Amino acid sequence: MANTAQARKRAKQAEKQRAHNSSLRSELRTAIKKVVKAIEIGDKVAAQAVYSTSVGTLDSIADKKIIHKNKASRHKSRLSAAIKAMA
């Protein structure tokens, strides 16, 4: 346990930041799942609409360094390819 006032404050700040980052990661996973679900349904127009909103979420979270920018790029690429592959 933290012994000094400074260490106690840093522990408190770290916990608050961890909770915030966790909620952003959850938002990221939800955005990806929405696109995947739209692809599975087979509605290309809906999938493209959901994808365009999810891209903003992915980029925002990558800009905040919650995930690496290459990971965000990889997700966007794979989702985009899946939408393009739809008949």
From TrEMBL:
One of its GO terms (molecular function) is structural constituent of ribosome. Gene3D superfamilies: Ribosomal protein S20 (1.20.58.110). GO terms for biological process: translation. Signal peptide: none annotated. The keyword NAD does not apply. InterPro entries: Ribosomal_bS20, Ribosomal_bS20_sf. Keywords: Ribonucleoprotein, Ribosomal protein, RNA-binding, rRNA-binding. Residues 1-27 are annotated as: Disordered. One of its GO terms (cellular component) is cytosol. The keyword ATP-binding does not apply. Belongs to the bacterial ribosomal protein bS20 family. NCBIfam families: S20. Binds directly to 16S ribosomal RNA. This is Small ribosomal subunit protein bS20. It comes from Sulfurirhabdus autotrophica. The gene is rpsT.
